[in-house]
Design brief:
Chain lengths: ~425, ~425
């Protein structure tokens, strides 16, 4: 079974907003054995939306549309769906009552503009929306199911999971996707270690992607049934882990931060961080994982020198002799932080994220990382390529990776 | 002049990776008066890529393709371009020399797999890549220009700016996009205040989008020349600012964090933060702006209670009586942080990001924000909807917005 995902919105077509809905939907569909063959994005243009829906419905088995169901004049998807169906819009009394109720519960009055959200193409069904005002639409075009969902990600995700997924059959021919995330080597180096697994004729097949500072390996497994597909994926993951060793950070939804968290939890150890150039990014990433309070104590954002000396007891002499971006400063900050918070581990990070502030001896991208732990403190120097955002991301990932590798060398309890 | 942007990759089509390249390209094209009429995403499938390029070239004036130029077996775009042109690939000697040189400069040896990256369709031109190994391709299909760029965002952006943009003519009929970001009211409330500016027949026309926790207003201005288009946008921005007042956070590339930074800089004041449920997110957002060291001193990530008492001098009695997520704790933390770092302002934030940890009196989404400033301390209570990531984002934005509104009430120097 093949699907096309259509995203609607001038904000998407013009690049003001990045479309994250299509990726969510493709992942969810894949989990049900439905292969997405294309994503399309069109603007707030009624004929263009209608034409995209029609041609997709003619080409594949399932069409999912997101966006353009809001209450304002640029929300034209419901009209376009009616056009593609060759029908007209009519107010759905139950939808109207639900929208009024939604406002009522929040103690607000419904503005007249929201009435349009209760309109549904004749012959289509509304899809309930418990997290926003716009109901979705379940329609048929060219005999194929077309599901229309709001563009706000939280509403779209709720509606897909609650109302669309239960209507989609599980399919006999199953395609499962899985990912393995690596850190530490470039894409072509990793590919040369697994070239046989990447052969286009192989099943499961492995592909590589550079994303978010890491190299991710995708595994696509096609089988008659889910058990076989899962087993084949597991075999391939085992091979990847055997060949790539400690470069493998995690799988699927796992991140560098969640992998570090898991290792800390297993070892019943705690972490504190002190961040300069990353300004809180490592703390933010670590605490994105629910339950991180079990192993993360907190830390110090030591952006100004004063914060380094006063909070972390970095000696003035170290800052004066070596500068804020130096190995001795990173070490003193990490050790000061570990002491201050009485943690097992502390990461200290200081660097020049750019675009300005670099010099010949200390270029933009220079990052010093110190890792203070039960066995002492180690320091690492990196010169990272890229712009300010990339340098900060890579610095954060590198710091967590040094901790990850150190934890892998420690016994788990 | 119309363009279609095509993104290639199994990682995109399957939802493993979110496509950010299309948004970048659409924004850059718009700045040159080129309207993107559709984005398309296809997998690593040679016939599908070739078909997408051909049909786009037949429909519009310009095609930009990203992805699938890597060195591995799943990189099939260069073959697909040759197919769409009806030609074959041949090794380009200069490209090969440049790729070898790229590895040489980094002290690495080129693996044989990288040779494929020097292959270009006969009759096409290579586009230089100074930041990676894969050259791009400038081709013609159906008489229309087709530019093919790598999928790694940093390489794609460099190549578009350095090699593609100079080849694109500026056009007589100009379309300019601009955005105005607001915070504090829902989409339909804002829309009802500007309904006349959203009329589909108006030029410039205003549209609304909910994205990243804020409501963004898009302005699309079509004019004969760039001066008129810019003037029309300026007039519309003035109207929006007049009607929406302090809800307007910024324009274009401005963010909540950069807006706060600008106000602090104008007032020669400094900021420190102490974060619990957001774990460093506010610090990370503030320091994403280059030059933020002029006004941002740092702060404390007070995730564990011990960090709150020891670093910020939050009294044990406050934590015991009111709990870590309470107004008194937020106030004590903010005041402790302001003192510790001797800043003009300090934000204190504590809350329950979920998914667990909530109770009837303190539900998931409850966030207490305290703002300690020159005139004393104010506290704010929010119950924010959404999942862990959304609650943390909204909490960070709300905290910075309280500071922004307070700063707007202070005189600038």
């Amino acid at each position: 079974m093949n699907a096309v995902i259509i995203s609607v919105g001038d904000e998407l077509i013009s690049g003001q907003t990045v479309d994250t809905n299509s990726a969510y939907l493709a992942r969810r569909l894949a989990g049900m054995g439905i292969v997405t063959s294309a994503h399309q994005t069109v603007g707030d243009d009624r004929p263009a939306i209608a034409a995209a829906i029609k041609s997709a419905a003619e080409a594949v088995d399932l069409v999912v549309v997101t966006g353009g169901l809001g209450p304002t004049a640029d929300d034209l998807t419901r009209q376009a769906v009616a056009d593609a169906m060759g029908t007209a819009l009519a107010t759905n009394a139950q939808c109207l009552a639900e929208i009024e109720e939604f406002f009522h519960r929040r103690g607000r009055t419904m503005v007249p503009a929201n009435r349009i959200q209760a309109m549904i193409p004749l012959g289509a069904e509304p899809l309930a929306n418990k997290v926003g005002t716009a109901p979705g639409i379940a329609a048929r075009v060219a005999g194929k199911p077309v599901f229309v969902l709001p563009g706000v990600p939280a509403e779209m995700e709720w509606m897909f999971d609650a109302t669309v997924a239960p209507r989609l059959d599980r399919h006999a021919g199953v395609v499962l996707y899985h990912t393995v995330h690596t850190f530490g080597q470039g894409e072509s180096d990793i590919a040369s270690a697994i070239v046989d697994l990447m052969d286009r004729g192989r099943n499961p097949i492995v592909g590589t992607t550079v994303s978010g500072g890491m190299v991710t390996l995708r595994i696509i497994s096609r089988s008659a049934g889910p058990q076989e597909a899962r087993r084949a994926i597991r075999d391939t993951v085992d091979q990847l882990r055997r060949r790539l060793g400690a470069m493998v950070v995690g799988e699927g939804e796992e991140t560098m931060a969640s992998a570090v968290g898991l290792l800390l939890r297993q070892r019943k150890q705690t972490l504190a961080v002190t961040e300069s150039c990353t300004g809180g990014m490592i703390g933010e990433m670590i605490t994105a994982t629910a339950g991180s309070s079990d192993y993360f104590l907190g830390g110090v954002i030591a952006y100004a020198n004063q914060a380094k000396t006063q909070l972390l007891s970095v000696p003035h002499s170290v800052l004066e002799t070596h500068g804020a971006v130096s190995e001795p400063t990173a070490i003193a900050a990490a050790e000061g932080c570990r002491k201050l918070l009485a943690s097992d581990w502390a990461i200290g990070i200081t660097g020049i994220a750019g675009p300005s502030g670099g010099s010949e001896s200390k270029p933009v991208g220079l990052v010093h990382i110190a890792l203070a732990g039960p066995q002492g403190t180690k320091a690492y120097r990196h010169v990272l390529p890229g712009n300010r955002a990339t340098v900060r991301l890579r610095a954060s990932l590198s710091a967590m990776n040094h901790l990850r590798l150190a934890l892998l060398g420690e016994p788990a309890h």
